[in-house]
User: What shape does this take?
Amino acid sequence: MKDIVFDLGGVLVDWNPRHLYKKVFTTEAEMEWFLTNVCTAQWNTQQDAGRPFEEGIELLKAKYPEYTFAIEFYRSRWEEMLGGVIEGSVEILRNLKTRGYRVYALSNWSAETFPIVQKKYGFFNAFDGMIISGEEKLVKPDPQIYARLLEKYNLRASNCIFIDDNSANISKAADLGFETILFTDPEALHRTLSSRGIL
Assistant: This one.
């Protein structure tokens, strides 16, 4: 029986800084400029890799003092970036668990903010194990974080189906021998799992 490995943000949880910043900026163009040039995805990945939010925020405030309040909101109002669970995906997760599959999480997520989302949503109880980048000080697509998952839970890549919405993460997993599914939406995921005889 295959082991199923889920990414979290964008697959099971609707996390997007735009949920917050559309309330902060008056125009979409200014919001997009801020997220492209100030609080960028690359900057956020450093927190996912273990850098303290306080350190990352201070670096940006020194460089963009005119955006001090908006930068600070990235941590102080972080929970407003959560749009809720992706219901169809959570239903698939529970269905897999009911059918006897072991399910795991492999996610790029800050160790500071992960406890917030873990406490907020009950589906986390379904996982047989989780590897969170901020706790490991490693981020996908670094091969070492995939190896950490396999080693910690005694899994074989060839027996795992890895589901992620990031094509770079999927590509690296495939290189390492995982069976992969690039997530687009719950309906497509259900169809793919069904076609592979999982659901």
User: Anything to note?
Assistant: Residues 161 and 179 are 5 Å apart (CA to CA). The chain has two domains: 3-14+83-195, 15-82.
